[in-house]
Write a structure and sequence with these properties.
With about 280 residues, this protein is mainly α. Helices cover about 65% and strands about 0% of the residues. The protein has a two-stranded antiparallel sheet with strand order 1-2.
C-alpha cells in the first residue's frame, strides 16, 4: 500500500494515542484551522492510526457540515474549506443562543397560559362563556317584562367579559355581572316558554359562579331540575354541576370543612337529580 494514500482508519493497526494535549481541543483547533501547516500534517497523520481520534473528528465534521447545509450557522461556507472561520462560528453561537432564548420564552408562555386556566379564582374558569355555544337566539316571549330582563341580563353577562392579558381565559366586571343577576332574578319564570326557563337558570348559575357564590349557583341548578323539559339543556346543567362538584372536591380534601362539605353534598344531590331526569324516556 502506498503510504501517501489515506487508508481506512479501521483497517490500520491501532497505535497508542500520541496526542499530548486534550483530544477535543486538538480536534477543535484542527477543524477551526488554528493549527500551523506542520501541526495539521502531523495531526492528519495521527488520525490515520488512531481510530478514536479519527471517529471523533469525523463525527464533529459531519455535524458541522449538516448545520452548514441547513444554514443554521447563518454564514456561507467557502468551497475551499468545509468549516467556517472562527469569527463566523462565534456569530453562529450567538444565533444559537438567541434561538434558544426565543424557544424558552415560547415554552414558558405556553406553560403560564395553561397554568392560568386553573389559577386565580377556579370559579372564573367555570364561569367562562362560549358565545357560539351558549348565547341563545332571542325569541318573542310571552311577557314583555320577562323578555326584556332576560335579553338585558344575557347581554350584560357577555359584555362583562374581559380577555386576560396573560394566562388565557376571561375576567369579569363585577358590577355588570351583578346587574345581570338582578335582571335574571327579576324574571317570573311562568311568563317564559317552558323550554326557555332553564336558559334563565343556567345563566343565573353561571353569573353566581363568576363571583364565586356557590350556594346561589347551586340553588339555580336545583331549580332548573324542576323545570327541565329539554334533554340537551339538562346535559348542559349537569356538566356545570359536575364542574362545581370537582372544584369543591379539590378545595376540601380531608379538611372536614363543614360549609364546604355541605356544598359538596348538595352538589352531589343535584347532580343525581339531573342524572335521573336523563333516564326518563
Amino acid at each position: 500500500m502506498n503510504p501517501s494514500q489515506p487508508s481506512d482508519p479501521g483497517s490500520s493497526p491501532e497505535r497508542p494515542c500520541q496526542i499530548r494535549e486534550n483530544r477535543q481541543e486538538a480536534i477543535d483547533r484542527y477543524l477551526l484551522g488554528e493549527m500551523s501547516s506542520a501541526e495539521a500534517d502531523s495531526f492528519e497523520g495521527h488520525l490515520l492510526y488512531c481510530p478514536p481520534c479519527s471517529e471523533a473528528c469525523r463525527l464533529q465534521e459531519s455535524i458541522i457540515n449538516v448545520l452548514s447545509d441547513s444554514q443554521v450557522l447563518g454564514a456561507e461556507i467557502p468551497e475551499t474549506n468545509a468549516f467556517p472561520p472562527p469569527g463566523n462560528l462565534g456569530k453562529s453561537a450567538l444565533l444559537w443562543r438567541v434561538a434558544a432564548i426565543f424557544l424558552l420564552l415560547l415554552a414558558s408562555g405556553s406553560a403560564f397560559w395553561w397554568l392560568g386556566l386553573s389559577s386565580d379564582n377556579p370559579w372564573k374558569k367555570l364561569g367562562d362563556l362560549d358565545p357560539a355555544q351558549y348565547r341563545p337566539q332571542f325569541w318573542q316571549g310571552n311577557g314583555e317584562t320577562a323578555w326584556e330582563n332576560y335579553n338585558s341580563g344575557v347581554n350584560l353577562l357577555f359584555d362583562a367579559r374581559r380577555p386576560r392579558w396573560w394566562g388565557g381565559g376571561y375576567d369579569y366586571r363585577e358590577d355588570q355581572v351583578r346587574q345581570a343577576i338582578a335582571r335574571f332574578s327579576a324574571i317570573e319564570l311562568s311568563q317564559l316558554p317552558e323550554d326557555r326557563r332553564m336558559d334563565v337558570l343556567f345563566y343565573l348559575s353561571k353569573a353566581h359562579l363568576v363571583l364565586g357564590e356557590i350556594d346561589p349557583a347551586l340553588s339555580a341548578l336545583d331549580l332548573s331540575g324542576q323545570v327541565a323539559v329539554n334533554r340537551l339543556k339538562v346535559d348542559r346543567a349537569l356538566a356545570l354541576c359536575e364542574g362545581i362538584e370537582k372544584e369543591l372536591e379539590l378545595e376540601i380534601p380531608g379538611k372536614g370543612d363543614p360549609p364546604g362539605q355541605a356544598q359538596l353534598q348538595r352538589a352531589r344531590a343535584i347532580r343525581a337529580n339531573l342524572e335521573g331526569l336523563l333516564k326518563i324516556p
